[in-house]
Amino acid sequence: MMQTKVQNKKRQVAFFILLMLWGEVGSESIQYSVLEETESGTFVANLTKDLGLRVAELASRGARVVFKGNRQHLQFDPQTHDLLLNEKLDREELCGSTEPCVLPFQVLLENPLQFFQASLRVRDINDHAPEFPAREMLLKISEITMPGKIFPLKMAHDLDTGSNGLQRYTISSNPHFHVLTRNRSEGRKFPELVLDKPLDREEQPQLRLTLIALDGGSPPRSGTSEIQIQVLDINDNVPEFAQELYEAQVPENNPLGSLVITVSARDLDAGSFGKVSYALFQVDDVNQPFEINAITGEIRLRKALDFEEIQSYDVDVEATDGGGLSGKCSLVVRVLDVNDNAPELTMSFFISPIPENLPEIIVAVFSVSDADSGHNQQVICSIENNLPFLLRPSVENFYTLVTEGALDRESRAEYNITITVTDLGTPRLKTQQSLTVQVSDFNDNAPTFTQTSYTLFVRENNSPALHIGSVSATDRDSGINAQVTYSLLPSQDPHLPLASLVSINADNGHLFALRSLDYEALQAFEFRVGATDRGSPALSSEALVRVLVLDANDNSPFVLYPLQNGSAPCTELVPRAAEPGYLVTKVVAVDGDSGQNAWLSYQLLKATELGLFGVWAHNGEVRTARLLSERDAAKHRLVVLVKDNGEPPRSATATLHVLLVDGFSQPYLPLPEAAPAQAQADSLTVYLVVALASVSSLFLFSVFLFVAVRLCRRSRAASVGRCSVPEGPFPGHLVDVSGTGTLSQSYQYKVCLTGGSETNEFKFLKPIMPNFPPQGTEREMEETPTSQNSFPFS
C-alpha cells in the first residue's frame, strides 16, 4: 500500500536496486590490474581493442570512465585514447584489509548510449611493516607454572595483504620460551608464548624478551615489541570466565557510553589472589571502539560505530587476580545496520541546452547508491510528474533522463528538474539533485506582423526620402532565428511603379517615400511588405500597407464662369425694376484639391457702388441687395473673390460687368476697356479654328467641305450680324430663384458672333429673348448708334 501511495503521488521509476559490492563484477566484465603506487600516466589498457570498437570511435562517441563516488582513477590519452592511470593509487586507502582490491567502473559511450562493465584491481606492494599496538608487554607468570603453558600475546598489524602481510612471529633466543603463530577466524595471525622450562623466582625474578613480527615481502619487513616477564610467587588458581565466548549485537547508531555486554570471571583463591580485575586484550587504542570497567566487567561504547566501515569486532577480554594470574575469553560484537546513510547520486553525463525539435533526447546519465545494506539499501528514483521528461533505468544502478517528446522553446525555455533518490529504510532518507535544462531554439516560428494591414497617410508635395511610417514584425524564436529582415514584395498592379514610390529599411521596417507625391495624380496605392527571419530554413510572412495621399492646398480656385484671363468681358443686364434678391448671375469655380481644401466661398471684393449687389458666400450667386433707382449708375464693375478653405487659403477673382437697363430698351454698347481683350480673344480664336481645321482634314473630304461651308457662313454672319436687344419690361419668368447657381431652365442659348474686328470669335452663350413692345423713344435709339445688339450673357 505504501508503494502504491508513492506511485500515486509522483510519477516514479520504481526500480529497486540491491546494490552489489563494487568488487563483485560479473564474468562478462573486463578486469585490468595495476600495482599500487604506480606513477600517474602509466598505460593500463587499449579499450578500442578490448571493446571491439573502430579506431577513433571512443573519441567520436565521447567515451568517459565512471567510478563509484565520481572519483577519476583512470583517464584517456587525448591522442591514442588508451586507458592511463590518472593518479597514484594507495591500495590500503582504497580497500583497507579487503583482498582482492577491485574497483569496478563503467565505460560510457554516447550516440547511441552504451555501457561496458570493467574493473581495476590494485595489487599490493610491500610498503608497510608490521606494527605492534604497544612497544612493551608485561606478563606475570607463577614460578610453579608447568612447561607447555601457553600465554596469548598482543598481535601485530600489517596494512599490506597477501604475501606482503604479516606471516609469522619469532622471539629472541632464551632457554624458557618459544613463540607460536596462530590464525584467527578472519585470517589474522596472532602470537602465543609457550613455556618450555620451569621458572625459578629465586634464581631469576624477571626476564626480557623481544617479540618479532615478520611479513612475506621481499625483502621482508618486521616490527618488534619488548616482553617483560615477572616471575610470581605461588598463586595456584587462575580467574575463569563464565563463558569462553561472548556474543553481542549493537546497532551502529547506539550512543557513546551505551552498554554492549557484561563479562564475568571468578577466582577460587582467597584474599588478594581471589580479587579479579578486567581488561581488554589485544587492544588497538586508536581503532578500538570499546572500553571495559575493570571492576564490574561492563563493556561500553567509547567511539561511534559505522556498519559501512566495520561489520564486526573480535575482542579478547582478560581477567587478572591479585597474584598476577589471568584468564581470557573472547567477545564477538556484530554491528547492526541502521538507515543512517542517505542515497548517493553520481552524475556521469549531463547536456544543456538541448534542441527543442527532437524527441527522446538523452539529457543526463547518473548512478545511484546507498552505503547501507539490506532493505535500507533499496532505493526509488523519481522526478516531478509535471515535466516532459522520463527516467529510465539502465544497466545496474544507472539511470538515463530523457525528454518525453519534442519540446517547444517558445512555450518554455528552461526547466528546473529535481531528481529525488529515496531509500526504503526506516526512517526514509532521500537525496535530491537539481538540474537546470535550457532549451535551444530551432527556427520553427515565422515572423508575425503587429498588424495584418497598415494604413499610412502622406501629405502631397512631400520631400523625397521622407519617412512615412513603419511596419514591425516579431519572431518568437531567439538569437539569429528571431532577427527579421524587411522587404517590399512585387506589386500585383503592373501599372504601379512601386520601386520608384517607396523603399523600406531592411533592418527596422521604416518606410520612405522616394519622390514627391501628387494627390491629383495619385490619391492612394497599396503594396505588400515581407518579413523574413535569418534562421535556417528561413521563414517569412507578409502584411498589406495602404498609403493614402493627403491633399495639400496646392491648387487655387479656377473660375469657369465668367471666363477670365483676357477673354471678352461679360456684361450682365439687370432691369432697374428688379426686386432685391434678383439673381444677376452666378460665379462658377472649381478647385483641383479635395476635402476642405476644395470648399469654396465667395465674397464681393470690389464694386462700383457698394451696397447695390451682394454675393452669396456658398454658391457664388450675385444678387441685388436693394431696390434700384434712377440715381444708380448704369454701368457697374464687380470683382468677386473666390477663396478655398485650405491652410493657407488660396483664391482667385472673377470680374463682372453689370448694365442697368430700363425694360431692356437701352441699347448695349461694348465697354471701351474690353477692346484690347477682344483683339486678343480674336487671335486665339484663329488659332483654335486652324487647329480644328487640321484635325478635320483627317475626315472624309465631304465632311471637310461641310465643315468649311459652315465656317464660312459663320464668318460672313459675324461681319454683319447683330443681336437685337428686346425692349420692354424684363420678363419675370426668366429670373433664377432656385438658388442652385445655374440659370433658369427657361433660358435658351445660341452662339453669337461679334463684329468689329478682322477675326471672328466664339462668344459665350446668351439667351434668346422674345420681342416685347418698345418702351424707349426713337431718340434714345439714336443716342447709341454704335451699340451692338449682342451681349454676352450666361
TrEMBL record:
It is found in: Membrane. It comes from the Eukaryota. Residues 784-794 have a biased composition (Polar residues). One of its GO terms (cellular component) is plasma membrane. Residues 1-27 form the signal peptide. GO terms for molecular function: calcium ion binding; cell adhesion molecule binding. Keywords: Calcium, Cell adhesion, Glycoprotein, Membrane, Repeat, Signal, Transmembrane, Transmembrane helix. The chain crosses the membrane at residues 686-709. The keyword Nucleus does not apply. It is a single-pass type I membrane protein. InterPro entries: Cadherin-like_dom (IPR002126), Cadherin-like_sf (IPR015919), Cadherin_C (IPR032455), Cadherin_CS (IPR020894), Cadherin_N (IPR013164), Protocadherin/Cadherin-CA (IPR050174). Coiled coil: none annotated. Pfam families: Cadherin, Cadherin_2, Cadherin_C_2. SMART domains: CA. Residues 133-241, 242-345, 346-449, 450-559, 574-669 form the Cadherin domain. Its main location: membrane. One of its GO terms (biological process) is cell adhesion. This is Protocadherin beta 6. The gene is LOC101125318.
